[in-house]
């Protein structure tokens, strides 16, 4: 047992790295497949969306967090429960619009970009764009149409990574998505 | 914290993407692509994972490490059975392989199993390569969700 303990570092941390590295390999593969940043962004968002529509189920089962009354509640649950649960970080919720339908998630350290440096000439690549897709997909499954996009990205030299979420409308009829 | 969930979903998307983008290509190319992605991840992952480890005694010791610690790290469980012929072939059996548990247990989706095993095979190969062992890793499924990984050491 003592040997075992000496051998394993911090499995939790390294497990996060497994995700980071796999994501990195995926993005690299996409760059090879498309050679066009915008196309890669789109693809990442699409994959994120696919993840989002399924991960919400896992989330609801695990978190057991009850109903949200307004968009502010939603923001809190996303940052304090969802991000904490899956990525181990708690983004700061800020920059609310006066109408309360738009806010930003500020990520101080983004685990997806842990070992990443963007090579020259990829200014329009949103490396972590998968997050937008996940958020959009997940929220859509709970009847919220939300626009999600990156406003600032640490990788591009900004001080902080900022994801902007804008509430568009409540989806009334839950039409099965992806049935096209 | 449920940080294994994002990885699992990401892997599913990865498999789906590789197969969607290569309709004309042979299935083998997709498998090879996924394997090499896994290799790349395994290579760098083990480097960070073993940085505070004591030195390995021998080959078997490394295999045990893969079965216990590495498997635990990636799949949150250990390998159920490790067998070897002591001549460079190791068989790792996982009775409930994580990437297969989402598939139906019957025979219906047996054909789909290999594409979910390519990345894990690459992971093992990459990890062992980083530890100084050149090998070939293949996977075999006889009854879902159990799975056997065969590691064949390449000696020069």
From TrEMBL, chain A:
Xref: CDD domains: TRAPPC3_bet3 (cd14942)
GO cellular component: endoplasmic reticulum; Golgi apparatus; TRAPP complex
SUPFAM superfamilies membership: Ligand-binding domain in the NO signalling and Golgi transport
Phosphoprotein as UniProt keyword: no
UniProt record, GO biological process: Golgi vesicle transport
Membrane-spanning intervals of the chain: none
Predominant subcellular localization, coarse grouping: endoplasmic reticulum
Highest rank taxon of the organism: Eukaryota
Pfam families: TRAPP
Keyword Cell inner membrane: no
Keyword field: Endoplasmic reticulum, ER-Golgi transport, Golgi apparatus, Lipoprotein, Palmitate, Transport
Cellular compartment(s): Endoplasmic reticulum; Golgi apparatus, cis-Golgi network
Function in brief: May play a role in vesicular transport from endoplasmic reticulum to Golgi.
Quaternary structure (record): Homodimer.
Family label: Belongs to the TRAPP small subunits family. BET3 subfamily.
Database matches in PANTHER family: TRAFFICKING PROTEIN PARTICLE COMPLEX SUBUNIT 3
Protein name in the entry: Trafficking protein particle complex subunit
Automatic annotation (TrEMBL), chain B:
A single Gene Ontology CC term: TRAPP complex
Pfam families: TRAPP
Location relative to the cell: Endoplasmic reticulum; Golgi apparatus, cis-Golgi network
Gene Ontology annotations of biological process type: endoplasmic reticulum to Golgi vesicle-mediated transport; nervous system development
Database matches in InterPro entries: NO_sig/Golgi_transp_ligand-bd, TRAPP_component, TRAPPC6/Trs33
Principal localisation: endoplasmic reticulum
Functional note: Component of a transport protein particle (TRAPP) complex that may function in specific stages of inter-organelle traffic. Specifically involved in the early development of neural circuitry, likely by controlling the frequency and amplitude of intracellular calcium transients implicated in the regulation of neuron differentiation and survival.
Family: Belongs to the TRAPP small subunits family. BET3 subfamily.
Protein name: Trafficking protein particle complex subunit 6B
Organism listed in the record: Littorina saxatilis
Lineage, highest ranks first: Eukaryota, Metazoa, Spiralia, Lophotrochozoa, Mollusca
């Amino acid at each position: 047992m003592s040997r075992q303990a000496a051998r394993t570092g911090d499995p939790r941390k390294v497990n996060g790295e497994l995700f980071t590295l796999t994501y990195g390999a995926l993005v690299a593969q996409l760059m090879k497949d498309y050679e066009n940043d915008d196309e890669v962004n789109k693809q990442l968002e699409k994959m994120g969306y696919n993840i989002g529509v399924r991960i919400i189920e896992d989330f609801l089962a695990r978190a057991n967090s009850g109903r949200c009354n307004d968009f502010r509640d939603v923001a809190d649950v996303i940052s304090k429960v969802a991000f904490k649960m899956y990525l181990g970080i708690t983004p700061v919720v800020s920059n609310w619009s006066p109408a309360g339908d738009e806010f930003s998630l500020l990520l101080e350290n983004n685990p997806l970009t842990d070992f990443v440096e963007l090579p020259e000439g990829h200014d329009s690549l949103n490396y972590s764009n998968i997050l937008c897709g996940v958020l959009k997909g997940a929220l859509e499954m709970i009847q919220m149409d939300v626009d999600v996009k990156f406003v600032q990205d640490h990788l591009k030299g900004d001080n902080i990574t900022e994801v902007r979420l804008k509430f568009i409308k409540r989806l009334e009829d839950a039409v099965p998505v992806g049935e096209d | 914290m449920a940080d294994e969930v994002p990885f699992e979903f990401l892997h599913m998307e990865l498999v789906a993407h590789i197969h969607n983008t290569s309709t004309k290509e042979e299935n083998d190319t997709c498998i090879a692509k996924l394997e090499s992605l896994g290799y790349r991840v395994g290579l760098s992952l083990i480097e960070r994972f073993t940085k505070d480890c004591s030195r390995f005694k021998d080959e078997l010791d490394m295999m045990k490490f893969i079965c216990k610690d590495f498997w635990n790290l990636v799949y949150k469980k250990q390998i159920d059975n490790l067998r070897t012929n002591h001549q460079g072939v190791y068989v790792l059996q996982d009775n409930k392989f994580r990437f297969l548990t989402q598939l139906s247990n019957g025979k219906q989706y047996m054909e789909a199993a290999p594409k979910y095993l390519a990345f894990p095979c690459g992971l093992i190969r990459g990890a062992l390569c980083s530890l100084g062992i050149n090998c070939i890793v293949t996977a075999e499924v006889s009854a879902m969700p159990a799975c056997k990984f065969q590691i064949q050491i390449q000696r020069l």
